Amino acid sequence: MKDDIINRVANSKLATIDLEDFYPEGKRILFDIKDWLFEGFVLREKDFRKQVSEFDWSQHKNQYVALTCSTDAIVPGWAYMLLSLHLEPFTKKVIVGDLEQLETSTYQDIIQKLDISEYEGKPIIIKGCSNKPVPQNAYIMLSNKLKPVAKSIMYGEACSSVPLYKKK
Fold first, then answer.
1. Which of 18, 94, 101, 104 would bridge 127 by S-S if both were Cys, CB 3.0 to 4.6 A apart?
2. Where do the structural domains in the chain lie, given as residue ranges?
């Protein structure tokens, strides 16, 4: 009589969460305003407002935009607010920062809305090694959200996971 091979992982209550599955599609843009400043450093309000009003914002339809200034210019807060108000009708999200901050902010929204009731009392593996730019902060936010309901939290793959938390 042959011994059947049994997949114990498939038969367990182990739940796997892959943050890559939640990655929202859409182009990511770093919008640098340095070229809109006089000599790259001085914001002249009248000139800035003119450029903002004449710019074709629709080219950023369905994109994720990180507003930045790559020079050491002092940019008043209202300038980013003005840009954001023009981008808002077209984009999926606008932040001030870099592309990693954009991804973190995007995942923060996703994780806050995530229904974790199905993970109540279960051992959970948060899958690592993604092919998409999932920020490290997303893993931290997810593990903290799951901790109150999880029996245990691990990181990696079912065959080689790292234990992180076990409910007492």
1. 18
2. 8-24+103-166, 28-91
